[in-house]
Design brief:
The protein is an alpha/beta fold. Helices cover 43% and strands 19% of the residues. It has a single domain (3-125), classed as 3-Layer(aba) Sandwich (Rossmann fold). The chain has five helices and five strands, in the order βαβαβαβαβα. β3, α3 and β4 (77-81) form a beta-alpha-beta unit.
Length: 127
């Protein structure tokens, strides 16, 4: 199947999502911070990225998404966010070519199977 990079500072969420993606035949690499993700992507560009927003800072995922889009515009990114729930901001985030260059945004909490289905759809769109 595909190489998927999970980027999140939540160890439990990484474990659950990794298990579900592996059960679908994907190879999964993990990074627990944006800095670690940068190093992993320098070593090997994955087929898709699942990226959390709030890690080292509350905007680390947003910043990394823009950086990855500049360096690897063909790399599909699924953004995971708990910003709305954690901060109470009165709006939802949507993909935007300039500000938020991701394919899709998934609000936390979510069903891990739904995440796996979205990753599969993301990969089909990028073929």
């Amino acid at each position: 199947m595909a190489n998927v990079l999970l980027i999140d500072d939540d160890v439990d969420l990484i474990a659950i999502n990794s298990t579900v993606l592996k059960s679908r035949g994907h190879e999964v690499a993990v990074a627990y911070s944006a800095a670690e993700a940068r190093r992993r992507i320098e070593e090997s560009v994955p087929d898709a990225v699942v990226l959390d927003v709030m890690m080292e800072t509350q905007t680390a995922g947003f910043e990394l998404a823009r950086e990855l889009n500049q360096k690897h515009p063909e790399l599909p990114i699924l953004l995971l966010t708990g910003v709305h729930e954690a901060t109470g901001v009165p709006f939802k985030f949507e993909p935007d070519e300039t500000w938020l260059p991701v394919v899709e945004v998934l609000e936390k909490p979510f069903d891990p199977t739904a995440l796996a289905e979205k990753v599969d759809d993301l990969l089909k769109r990028s073929e």
